[in-house]
Design a protein that fits this description.
Blueprint: H1 10-34, H2 41-44, E1 50-59, E2 65-67, E3 73-75, E4 87-92, E5 95-106, E6 112-122, E7 128-132, E8 138-140, H3 142-146, E9 150-153
Parallel strand pairs: 1-9
Antiparallel strand pairs: 1-6, 2-3, 4-5, 4-7, 5-6, 7-8
């Protein structure tokens, strides 16, 4: 007579032990890695230095702005968006920084002038695109933006 069950083969037990050893090695590796002190990814990157871009925007064509009763001015027609509080954006490959137009003044030379300041512009970028009040962006390099007050004529 033959037994109802066949005797276990050594082939099956070899694979069982190999699987158990691999599982134990994986568990030990996970335990050792989880006990190490981890640094957040943001903290491991060097901090980006920034600078401030300051300047003035001019509307020099008298048809591109109107004067108000208080010595101020604002853009008209295609330049209607050029007014106090209008956005000034500097875009880089890594993001953007923003400021706004302030201190609108109708000057005696027949121009309309606004001041702006854009903080937290990252250093070390290849190019910078500066856009005032939705007008066409202009391309600059870092040296140009860091020099004395930047003067833009948008009319």
């Amino acid at each position: 007579m033959q037994p109802l069950r066949s005797a276990p083969t050594t082939h099956r037990s070899v694979w069982m032990w190999a699987g158990a050893a691999a599982g134990l090695a994986l568990a030990v590796t996970m335990f050792l890695n989880s006990s190490k002190t981890r640094t957040p990814a943001a903290a491991s990157r060097p901090p980006t230095e920034t600078f401030v871009v300051s300047g003035a925007v001019l509307l020099g064509d008298s048809a591109s702005f109107v004067r108000d009763d208080h010595g101020g001015c604002g853009g008209t027609g295609d330049h209607a968006g050029v007014k106090d509080g209008a956005p000034v954006l500097i875009t880089t490959r890594d993001g953007f920084a923003g400021g706004k137009l302030t201190d609108a003044r109708a000057l005696t030379d027949g121009t309309c002038q606004f001041r702006f300041s854009v903080p937290r512009v990252p250093t070390g970028q290849d190019t910078y695109l500066l856009m005032v009040a939705g007008q066409d962006p202009r391309q600059y390099i870092e040296h140009e933006l860091k020099s004395a007050l930047l003067a833009l004529r948008v009319d």
